[in-house]
């Protein structure tokens, strides 16, 4: 039996990694298998983030870039993508917790911060001494953030005053630094601000009743006259185009995460089909089950192939917004299809955490929507394809 088929690497994308990169993946896989996976179901059910694992995450040495801190080893775009896939393959909540800090929060400082701001914040974030969050989405503004952001920033001398609300903010209940995007009332442009935990007027309340990514602490943030010094305004964030530069990279990372979610569901369904017996033989021998297995593996493989090419473009500095949008759109759509088929293989057992598919089935709904819905990413892709914008 081809081990690549068993592990969901049917076209052997791991062979594209260098020996050193493969060693990193092996080390991270071991950590995920031994430290993250054993308690994933229980954390998901309780709605807990594994903050106790932060010291071990730090020791993995996979946070940040050499630009953030000289101690960080370089990572190719392919390695970064494969690591995102591997994390989500085990626990989408853990992968999102890591990605919000490492991608959205650190990425905002890296892309939009001044050199002084990068030196001030990023080394501490590399070491997880300060955990980051990213505050863009609002209670009444999701897809319309480019033109409809309601959180405001008003300058008073050397200080900015922020007023508004944010919703769905991952890591928001415990983050030390929250990158808040607000509209400058003077020029109507979106700007970025770093708000520290405990700032007067800033409150964060965990959202309750979630059915997806329960291991992520999503917060409802309220900013009531929060005062931020000009020194903490991201100096390179002066319009939503700058915000979009951060999202371009992280949107591509979601494509890898969606691939990992589909992969985790496929592997759990395959393992179940091999051991589950009906009518005196394993259900993996039934034609209808084999059809579902093949469809799932086909989806995973197609997403991997697209994500690998995306990583190559990113490495060459040629990844465009529309290409990242297409990757997110395609991979999350195929993911949603795949986790549904995985649940189908398990029948009623597919909704029980103990059989390994239910978390992926539920968590896929969050990945499908965040970092831009399928519809919004389709419009970004089609705008590039047609030269005509459908946005109002």
From TrEMBL:
Domain Acyl-CoA dehydrogenase/oxidase N-terminal span(s) in chain numbering: 19-127
One BP term from GO: fatty acid beta-oxidation
Obligatory cofactor(s): FAD
Annotated ranges, domain Acyl-CoA oxidase/dehydrogenase middle: 133-226
Keyword Oxidoreductase set for record: yes
Gene3D superfamilies attached to this UniProt entry: Acyl-CoA dehydrogenase/oxidase, N-terminal domain (1.10.540.10), Butyryl-CoA Dehydrogenase, subunit A, domain 2 (2.40.110.10), Butyryl-CoA Dehydrogenase, subunit A, domain 3 (1.20.140.10)
Keyword annotations of the record: FAD, Flavoprotein, Oxidoreductase
InterPro entries found in the cross-reference section: ACX4-like, Acyl-CoA_DH_CS, Acyl-CoA_Oxase/DH_mid-dom, Acyl-CoA_Oxase/DH_mid-dom_sf, AcylCo_DH-like_C, AcylCo_DH/oxidase_C, AcylCoA_DH/ox_N, AcylCoA_DH/ox_N_sf
Family per record: Belongs to the acyl-CoA dehydrogenase family.
Record PANTHER family: ACYL-COA DEHYDROGENASE (PTHR43188:SF1), ACYL-COENZYME A OXIDASE (PTHR43188)
UniProt protein name: Acyl-CoA dehydrogenase
Organism: Quadrisphaera setariae
């Amino acid at each position: 039996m081809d081990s690549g088929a068993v592990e969901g690497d049917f076209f052997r994308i791991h062979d594209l990694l260098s020996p050193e990169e493969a060693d990193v993946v092996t080390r991270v896989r071991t950590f995920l298998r031994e430290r993250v996976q054993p308690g994933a179901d229980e954390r998901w059910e309780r709605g807990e983030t594994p903050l106790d694992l932060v010291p071990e995450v730090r020791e993995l040495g996979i946070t940040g870039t050499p630009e953030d801190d000289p101690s960080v080893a370089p990572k190719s775009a392919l390695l970064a993508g494969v690591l995102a896939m591997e994390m989500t393959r085990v626990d989408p909540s853990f992968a999102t917790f890591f990605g919000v800090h490492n991608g959205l929060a650190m990425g905002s400082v890296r892309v939009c911060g001044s050199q002084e701001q990068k030196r001030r914040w990023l080394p501490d974030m590399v070491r997880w001494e300060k955990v980051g969050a990213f505050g863009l989405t609002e209670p009444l503004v999701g897809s319309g953030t480019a033109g409809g952001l309601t959180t405001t920033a008003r300058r008073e001398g050397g200080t900015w005053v922020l007023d508004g609300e944010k919703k769905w903010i991952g890591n928001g209940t415990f983050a030390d630094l929250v990158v808040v995007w607000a509209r400058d009332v003077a020029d109507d442009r979106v700007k970025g601000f770093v708000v520290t935990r405990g700032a007067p007027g800033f409150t964060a309340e965990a959202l309750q009743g979630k059915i997806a990514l329960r291991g992520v602490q999503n917060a409802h943030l309220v900013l009531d006259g929060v005062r931020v010094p000009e020194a903490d305004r991201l100096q390179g964030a002066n319009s939503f185009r700058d915000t979009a530069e951060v999202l371009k990279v992280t949107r591509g990372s979601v494509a890898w995460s969606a691939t990992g979610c589909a992969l985790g569901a496929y592997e759990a369904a395959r393992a179940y089909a091999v051991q589950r017996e009906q009518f005196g033989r394993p259900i993996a021998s039934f034609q209808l089950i084999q059809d579902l297995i093949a469809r799932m593996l086909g989806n995973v493989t197609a997403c991997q192939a697209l994500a690998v090419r995306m990583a190559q473009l990113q490495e060459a500095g040629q990844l465009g917004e529309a290409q990242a949008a297409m990757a997110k759109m395609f991979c999350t759509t195929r993911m949603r299809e795949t986790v549904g088929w995985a649940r189908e293989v398990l029948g009623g057992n597919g909704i029980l955490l103990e059989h390994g598919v239910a978390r992926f089935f539920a968590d896929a709904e969050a990945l499908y929507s965040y970092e831009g819905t399928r519809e919004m990413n389709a419009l970004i892709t089609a705008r590039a394809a047609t030269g005509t914008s459908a946005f109002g």
